[in-house]
Write a structure and sequence with these properties.
Cathepsin D, subunit A, domain 1; alpha+beta; aspartyl protease; 33% strand; 14% helix
Length: 481
Amino acid sequence: MAARGQLLVALVLLALAASSSAGSSGGRNRHRAAKAKAKPAARARLGLVRAAPDASLADRAIDDRHRHAYISAKLRRPAAAAADVGSSAFAMPLTSGAYTGTGQYFVRFRVGTPAQPFVLVADTGSDLTWVKCRGAGAGNAAGEGGGERVFRPADSKTWAPMSCSSDTCTSYVPFSLANCSSAASPCAYDYRYKDGSAARGAVGTDSATIALSGGHGGAVDGSRRAKLQDVVLGCTASYDGQSFQSSDGVLSLGNSNISFASRAAARFGGRFSYCLVDHLAPRNATSYLTFGPGGPEDAASSSAAGAAPAAQTRLLLDRRMSPFYAVAVDGIHVDGVQLDIPSDVWDVDKNGGAILDSGTSLTILATPAYKAVVAALSERFAGVPQVSMDPFEYCYNWTAGGGGGEPEIPKLEVEFAGSARLQPPAKSYVIDAAPGVKCIGVQEGAWPGVSVIGNILQQEHLWEFDLRDRWLRFKHTRCIQ
């Protein structure tokens, strides 16, 4: 979620701004790893190649740092999720937002009666689903750019406003306004973003129209639709800044009492899954966000005989990490060798830990892990001419190679508890930053602090969040349906 054309995912409460800024500034003081003994080539300054107008990797990195500060500031909010077992499944189309210049993934979502269609950011770090809106007692939509889609509560027969004195508003709505002039006043929220943009509105409930899936493969049957009732929905009636130009709002996939993911999963088997196509994939490369059957185990069972089973590790639905999904990391390996990273980095009790976040593009590693990873990878590229390219510390003139064609990229693996290993494709951690230029695509985060596995490292994998039994399952696949 970005300024300058990318919806900024780093929602920061004004009261926490000082804390967030401290975390962000700590991340900027990056350690420079020891250089290779070979004499380095002269560095050339290269301009960033923009994915779309007003978008760049530097923009995405800044947004990721803002989000990392937001994550660090928010990891003390309690949450719990119900888990009633359903018998069906439904799916929503999911695409990369690269065509808009953002580093996010978009999902198509229909809300209201009659249903009104929207394109929302799929965000595992959000607890409130909201859409741009006109009406609902919080004013009329106001922002830059006209002709965009907006939700009109007055046109929906199933919209029900929420009062500011309600239990849900006072206990679970993030950034809700404390002032309540009367018990019947709307449940209002005021999001302020690090780039100066803001989103303000009122909360209510409405129904979402869903397309039921057929079988275990997650395929959508367009003729079978159903209504999911009482979806908690924010009606963003006033906004400003550049943060909201690429989508119509946010679909909350976080671990929270009021998130869409928690409530929908409770109705459909206690689990949801998504498959992230290549982050640079075109608009027509579609995968699905699925609730119920359709995850890695189902995909493996419906594929050809001999298919590799899905890996799984415990999903840590820790109150201290809510609304984010935490996992236990046992280590990181490069070419089969485990890196020397202190175990405290992965320990929530030692102010560390790791989360998976679909709203962060680049993976952010706490300082000790970052140092170890970039040192191991850059050592393999000692003979490749380096170039300078913000925001990365290690970038290379890939076309120059090392005298014997393109350099070989070492194999990176993230080992989770239970011996489950994420083996991302090389393009997920040594990324294309410009024609002929590749960069080690990780960022440094403050230590102590949480590490974030971003959506680029998650790409081309099917991920299942089993909220009922607390498992995270994943399997490599190209994702395109």
